[in-house]
Amino acid sequence: MKIMVSGGAGFIGSNVVDAYIRAGHQVAVVDDLSNGKKENVHPKACFYEKDIRSEEMDGIFELERPDVLNHHAAQISVPASVSDPLLDADINIKGFLNLLEKAVKYRVKKCIFISSGGAIYGEADEYPTSEAYPPKPLSPYAVAKLASEYYLAYYKHQYGLSFTTLRYANVYGPRQIPHGEAGVVAIFMNNLLNRKPCTLNHFPEDPKGMIRDYCYVGDVTEASLLALSKGNDDFFNIGTGIETKTLELYRVIYEAVREIYPGLPEELAMPGTALARPGDVTRSCLKIEKAENGLGWSPKIDLREGIRKTLKWWVGSSE
Which is nearest to 166 in space by CA: 263, 299, 310? Predict the structure, then answer.
C-alpha cells in the first residue's frame, strides 16, 4: 500500500512511518521540519520538505498517488494557539483542507486523521471521557481539531473519502521534543539529565498538577497500522484510561533517571511550581473501549516501562 504521512519527520509521525515500512508499505513523508527532524525520517521513505499549505502539494500528490493519507502535521502547542489563533487555524485548518483537496483530486481512498482526545473534550463532565461525550474545546488548537473532524465528515459525504480519526491522549516516547504541554515527559527528562530544575504547572486548588492520560508512542503507532483497514468513517480515543497527575509523572521520571545516575542531586527530587497556562484543562483521561472493539487496539506498555524505554533512547541519543 502507498501511504503519505504528513508530519512524518516529527515525533509521533516518524514512529508511524517506521511501523508502516516494517509492515511492508511504501511511504512518502511530507514535513516542513518546523518541529520534525530530517534524521527522524526512515531511509526507505521518500521525503519532501514542504509546508502542507503549499500549492506544491499538488505535484507531490500527482507524483506519489497515495492510497492513504495519514495526517500528523500540525501546530502542536495549546499555549501557542491561544497566543496566535490565526496561525494555528492557518496550519491546522487551512493546511489540512489543502491536503484534503489534493486527496480528492488524486483519488486517495482514505485519510487517517490525528485529533486530540486530550484537548477537544475540554473540562468534561463525563470522566474518564468516551467518544459519546460532546466535545467542548477550550483552546484554538482544540477548536481546529474538532473543525477538522467535521470537515472529514463533509468530504466523506461529498466525495466518498473514507476516514478514521484517532483522538490521541498525551503521547510520549522516543523522538519527542521538549516543547509545550505535549512534551512534558521530554522536558522533565531533558532537564533532569542535564541536572536542571523542572517546573510543574498546576491550578491553584491542586499543587500536585493536572491529570493526564499518558500513552507510549509504540502503542500509538499500532493504532495507525490497524486504521489502514479498520475503523472506517469513525473516531476513536487512543489512550490508556489511566489518570496520572503531573507530580506522579515527575516522580516516575526522577526515579528512572536516578537508577542510571545515582548521583542525581536530591534537591531535584521535587520540581518547582508555576500556575497553569492559558488553554490548560484540569484533567483529561480517555475511555478506550471503542478502540478495543472497533480497531482491536489496546495499550500494552505501562507508564514505568514506557518511561524506561524513553530514557534509554534519550541516553543513547545524547552519547
Answer: 299
